[in-house]
Amino acid sequence: MIHPKLIPIFHQPFVAMSPAVLITKVEIYKSRIVLKEPFKISLGILTHAENVIVKLTTDAGITGFGECSPFLTINGESMDTCFIVAQYLGKTLINKNALDIAGCTVVMEKVIYANNSIKSAFDMALHDIAAHHAGQPLYEFLGGTNSKTLITDYTVSIDDPAKMASDAARIKANGFQVIKVKLGQRIDLDLERMRRIREAVGMEIPIRIDANQGWDPQSALTLLNNLAPLNIQHCEEPIPRWNFMALPELKKKSPIRLMADESCCDQHDARRLIDLDACDLFNVKLGKSGGIFNAMQIAEIAENHNISIQVGGFLESRLAFTAAAHFALASDNIIYCDFDTPLMFVDDPVSGGIEYDRQGVISVPEIAGLGASFSEDYLQDLESVSVY
């Protein structure tokens, strides 16, 4: 269920009685970090994480951090567009009550349509402040407990079959318990890739695949049938997001469970997909939903309809993935984690936050708030703008 703190403002009589914590300053930073090696998917090749950091300061002396990793081909945003839109959002949120997350969400929606990636960074910072003010770790503020084990997969980028098989074997040898494989090109080549990977890692380790919208419906069905003997956990977004009306028939015929990713951005998409009986699972990313406030609503909708959830992300640092981990602890219906991209960074600019052990098991900070931040030494060297 949605935590009471997240119910819209007109259902929150206690907000008016609580002392307001006013936002007095908004700082916006461009954060560009080199990846250890190119990250290749069907939608393109990435060599850097190009992210935007938001820092909110309040009159109570509490600061909150948020971060987004915009993706041009998925959410239609870039580091540059987010940097500009953040200034519009920041001007509107100055002197607003940071504890009124629902009200701030409404304000941001009125400023500009969509732009969910940058809105998620503000949402994250608001939750950091509110949970810190409540004296609770964020997962507890959201109504969750730190009582389940979060295990991330590690992703094999698209490449030639031999390279992908070698990468998968290395991931297994490094101790990861789940492998994710990027596909979405010619189906004969994708099948060869998966056969070579299974030969390299054996049949026991769970493998999940992600086509990033790369197949047409008939090709997807043909390939999914051929992949069925290879013990595939699930397949993310097999066909173009605009063709979601073809998902119900594909789901009905597919021997592998289908997970909606690009076609499931917010709670409205989630309801539509459920009404259509279009998928078996949702992949929730804070950068798609607009943040935790909307993601919690997706989680409630999914739980009410027996749709399990994977929580993932884009190329965020450990700060945003710390927020994602707190969210993952807020619902028993969240059963999969895809939190590997911070491990692909050449540099780690985050203080505190989640930690990874050798087997991909994630530990979440137990201190009040998000429990993660960027150091001033890191921030002072970045291009930035402040809004008062």
Can you describe this structure in just a few lines?
The protein has 388 residues and is α/β, with parallel strands linked by helices. It has 15 helices and 17 strands. A hairpin with a 4-residue loop joins strand 14 and strand 15 (361-363).
Beta-strand proportion: 15-25%
Shape: globular
Straight-line N-to-C gap? 36 Å
Poorly predicted residue ranges: 1-17
**What is the CATH top level name of the largest domain?**
Alpha Beta
User: What is the CATH topology classification name of the largest domain?
Assistant: TIM Barrel
Which structural category fits the helices and strands?
A: alpha/beta
How many distinct beta strands?
17
Estimate the mean pLDDT confidence: 95
- Strand order, biggest sheet? 5-6-7-8-9-10-11-12
Number of domains: 2
Please give the radius of gyration in angstroms. Answer: 20 Å
Tell me the CATH superfamily of the largest domain: Enolase-like C-terminal domain
Helicity level: 25-40%
| Helical stretch tally | 15
CATH architecture of the largest domain: Alpha-Beta Barrel
